[in-house]
Amino acid sequence: MGRASHALKQVLDTYGISQNQLAGAMGVERGSVSRWYHDKRDPTAETVVEIVEALKSLNFQAAEKFVRLYLVDKLEEKTPS
């Protein structure tokens, strides 16, 4: 599973945000969110920013968690020496 899909799925499920709610907040069709959620398509970098902004409008903690799962946790992983 891709990082974006994993992060989005975990955040929406944890915070009880529906794909419809996120799609509405982003001004995109639900099918787009579904494709990201089900790892059928990766969102562009610009779309990831839009996901964060939409999540902030729905639940600030969900936005923070998405960023942490998508970016920060990857940075904190140990790299082999």
The parts where pLDDT drops under 50 for at least 5 residues are: none
- End-to-end separation in angstroms reads 26 Å
CATH overall fold name: 434 Repressor (Amino-terminal Domain)
Assembly type of the chains comes to: single chain
Care to count the β-strands? 0
Provide the helix percentage. Answer: over 70%
* Strand coverage percent: under 5%
Count of helical regions: 5
CA-based shape: globular
Q: Spell out the CATH superfamily.
A: lambda repressor-like DNA-binding domains
Radius of gyration using CA atoms only: 12 Å
Provide the number of structural domains.
Answer: 1
CATH architecture assignment: Orthogonal Bundle
What is the topology?
Blueprint (H helix, E strand, L loop, with lengths): L2 H13 L3 H8 L3 H8 L7 H14 L1 H17 L5
Protein described:
It is built from five helices and no strands. The mean pLDDT is 92. Helices cover 74% and strands 0% of the residues. It has helices spanning 3-15, 19-26, 30-37, 45-58, 60-76. The protein starts with a helix and ends in a 5-residue tail after the last helix. The longest helix has 17 residues, at 60-76. α4 crosses α5 (60-76). It has a single domain, classed as 434 Repressor (Amino-terminal Domain), CATH 1.10.260.40. The protein has 81 residues and is an all-alpha fold.
